[in-house]
Design brief:
434 Repressor (Amino-terminal Domain), 183 residues, 6-stranded antiparallel sheet, Jelly Rolls
């Protein structure tokens, strides 16, 4: 039984692209304990397993029923979207468990006063998005514009760009970028 749990946990962690050290840090379990569980040398208690799975996030029921061999999850609950954000900015990545995905599709949340940094960002590909609530100031090369709900953007990401929320309320937007970025 512990061997099944350990190998399943290792497969799930690998599928989600989370290192053993990162998962241990997220769930508050020592790295060595997590390693022993994955090797099948220690059987976790139900509460320990729940604590580990909460950090992925995944329910215990889904853990035992998910087809880890297939790796082709189609539907994602809110709690299954990996947060790949930086600092206070939240980037909820859809399909983060798919290593071969062709795009990065995210729900982004920028609290008031946050930005992607002083340095402009560049990477190959294209990005598009639509603002759901709040406002965001987007700078692309020398062009800056403030966008609100229902407004959208589309640009080549080789151009230097930056996102900033100068407003007093959080901004939520949905974005899609190609090719997929490794998070």
């Amino acid at each position: 039984m512990s061997d099944d749990v350990g190998s399943r946990l290792r497969s799930l962690r690998t599928l989600r692209g989370i290192s053993q050290r990162e998962l241990a840090k997220r769930c508050g379990v020592t790295h060595s304990s997590l390693s022993l569980i994955e090797q099948g040398k220690v059987s976790p208690s139900v509460s320990s397993l729940k604590k580990i799975l909460d950090a992925i996030p995944m329910s215990v029921g889904d853990f035992f029923t998910m087809d880890l061999e297939n790796g082709r999850q189609v539907f994602y609950g809110h709690e299954e979207l990996a947060d790949v954000g930086i600092g206070d900015i939240v980037y909820k990545l859809v399909g983060g468990d798919r290593r071969d995905r062709a795009l990065s599709f995210m729900i982004e949340t920028y609290p008031p006063g946050t930005d992607t940094g002083r340095e402009m960002i560049t990477h190959p590909g294209e990005e598009a998005g639509v603002i759901l609530e709040g406002e965001i100031e987007i700078t692309i090369a020398a062009d800056t514009r403030r966008l609100g709900p229902g407004e959208a953007y589309y640009f080549e990401t080789r151009l230097p760009h930056r996102f900033r929320n100068p407003g007093s309320e959080a901004c939520r937007l949905v974005s899609c970028a190609t090719p997929a970025r490794a998070f």
